[in-house]
Task: structure prediction
Amino acid sequence: MAELQKDPMTRGDFLGFGILGTIVGAILTIPPAAFVLGPLIDIDLRGQSDIPDDWFEVGSISEISEDEPKYFLVEFPVEQIYSQREIQEKSGTSKEEFTLDSGLWVSWKTEILEDGKYGSTQRPSFLDEYDGGSLSEEQVQEAQDAVNVLSNSCAHLGCPVRWIIREGEGELLCPCHGGIYNINGDYVAGPPPRDLYRYTHEVREDGKIYVRHEFDSGGEKGPQEPYVI
Amino acid sequence: MIGRLRSQAVDTGKFLTDWMEHRTGILTMMEHFLYEPVPKRGAWLYTLGSATLFCISLQFLTGILLLFYYVPTVDHAWNSIYYIMEEAYFGTLIRGIHYWSANFLLVFIGLHMAQVFFSGGYKAPRELNWVVGVVLLLLVIVLAFTGYLLRWDQDGFWASVVGMKIGSYSPFVGGPTIHFLLGGDVTGPATLSRFFAIHVWLLPAALAPFIGIHLYLLRKHGVFGSEFEYSDRLAKLHERQRLEEYEKYEEDGHEEDGEPYLGRRDREDRE
Result:
């Protein structure tokens, strides 16, 4: 190639081509790359989420029975591309509510005996005569500390776990690959690498549980981000 | 009268083909692409590649037809497929072909690969054709994966969730890859749009040139295993063995007697 060139390339030419090439290359590649990788920039670099940074109502603590978890469905609004609220309001044409339907298992923290059987629960005793009125600050704190708010999405590959009773003892079982968790959502058996994901939750004075779309990452078996929930 | 018309038609046809051949070379090209000597032994096994190509062509054709009715939004994707299956003329047939041909495509690719592997068809000078074939296999697998979600039913949805979570376990790149596929941090409208774009435009556009390269390399070297190739290889093998034998005798001869080797018969005669 070199002998085909009439003039040998000077250092100035080389630098000039390099600078020009960099500028043209950047103009040609950065816009399409940013266009396609937009979600990566938003989520991984800017730390945003498609679920609004808000508390969402789950249900009343009085609905949770003593010896088994109660299933709740929370519909988190999803703000992704055309389902963003401002865009829907601006167009005025969309009648659809775009939600992420998440299943939750909520149970009272239960003592696990040595043979794996369930012992006494931390269910607050004031619930026995609770009529749905407003709670005192101590009661709120007691209930909040005693409740497990678990995602029903298996920590292995995300299938929804369900509560089954076998030989008189209940467990949360994943239908896909047989992951098993106990009533507290702790790992018992099967392929999952960690316990069930726990929602960031709070109990309020109205006796209801509220959650954010946030999960505990980590656990004994190392950090595992809930990528798909 | 009829005889004259016929000869005129033949002349016109000849003129047209000559005209096209002169300007595009299409006849030579067709001959080159369509006629290929195939070994007689195991001839049916050599149709597996064509079967794969046939299924991919069906995918392209039925896929284009399905696009006339399919809507890639979360609120209408399932409904539009329901319409194709229940209302559209021959919708069940078109979607059925797309579905079954996708299944058989993977079967044919597997058999095709096995045939090439066990017959040693990947050996020199055809190594790169094997590599291109593996790229095609991966593209088809990702096509199958992305197509599954487009149905937006329970089956496809959960299969995709599980598939993506499997991917999320990859070290370092797992999270970003999942966020790229999801188009956010949860499954939602963006996920369906992305899978649609990948399934309908990105991967087919990537697939087509690789199919071209695969076929070009096939035509360049011919299918592996023709009788000519075998006899050629055998001849080369015999030649090499003969040379090795010759060298051995030459060495032995020099060491034992110290006189030049003049051929086995020669020495036997002297003894």
Summary: Chain A has a mean pLDDT of 86. The first helix of chain A runs from residue 11 to 36. Chain A touches chain B at residues 36-37, 39-40, 42-44, 49-51, 76, 78, 80-83, 96, 98, 100, 156-159, 176, 213, 225, 227-229 (CB under 8 Å). The CA atoms of residues 140 and 193 of chain A lie 32 Å apart.
